[in-house]
Amino acid sequence: MNRVLRLREALAEAIADDGIVTRAERVEDAVSGVNIEHLRMTEALLFAASEPLDEASLASSLPEGTDVTGILKELQHIYEGRGVTLTFVAEKWQFRTAPDLAFLLRREKPEQKRLSRAAIETLAIIAYHQPVTRAEVEDIRGVALSKGTVDALMELGWVRIRGRKRTPGRPVTYGTTEAFLVQFGLESVNHLPGVDELKAAGFLEAVPPSGFDVPTPSDELGPDEDPYDGEEAGDLATGAADPFTPASSES
């Protein structure tokens, strides 16, 4: 039985007896003279290090007389075949993920996108006035709405097509998504900031214009709104279902 197996058996026995610290002597015997406390300290230093450490650096942080070379060899044996291994690189030591498990740590960094002023205004209008059509958004903003603005919000997953108005032309209606609520920490669209909160945040004047009121958005279909049929997506792609003219005047 090799030293690694004897060490594991000694550790398991010590843990079973609830005495891993007080039974350190038995573990030391199993590690062929390596001081278990020095081994634990070395392991902690390597684990916390942001870059590889050489033996001199480790020795400077360990008690005088520590057998750094012997401890490193023991740690290398202990972590052999584990998810994390002790690797010797550039004459230094470092804990690294086992090469065959590197695929688990693939990092996917989302691309950061900055919303235009037009997109922010459009998002706010859709959030507070949903269900709302493109024409209604344009009427509120006072400027034509380009296709790219809504596309950007839908690509982010914050806006969706939710239905069709029962009016001539059957224009689609827009609303916010669950991802929108998650992004802004809202329980539902009914928890959007009201007049008092908007005033406190400085988004509204202390005395709003006469007749001003914050609309009440709804996740439910309106009385003049039918659910959107996804099969109509082809019509949207051609512009037949929701005609518009891209405008370069949008700001």
How would you describe what is shown here?
- The chain is α+β, with helices and mostly antiparallel strands and 251 residues long.
- It has 11 helices and 6 strands.
- It folds into 2 domains: 3-99, Winged helix-like DNA-binding domain superfamily/Winged helix DNA-binding domain (Arc Repressor Mutant, subunit A); 117-238, Winged helix-like DNA-binding domain superfamily/Winged helix DNA-binding domain (Arc Repressor Mutant, subunit A).
- It is 40% helix and 12% strand.
- The strands form 2 sheets. Strands 3-5-4-6 form a 4-stranded antiparallel beta sheet.
- Strand 1 (84-89) and strand 2 (92-97) form a beta hairpin.
- Helix 1 runs antiparallel to helix 2 and helix 3 packs across helix 5.
- The protein is elongated, with a radius of gyration of 32 Å.
- Mean pLDDT is 77; it is low at 18-30 and 231-249.
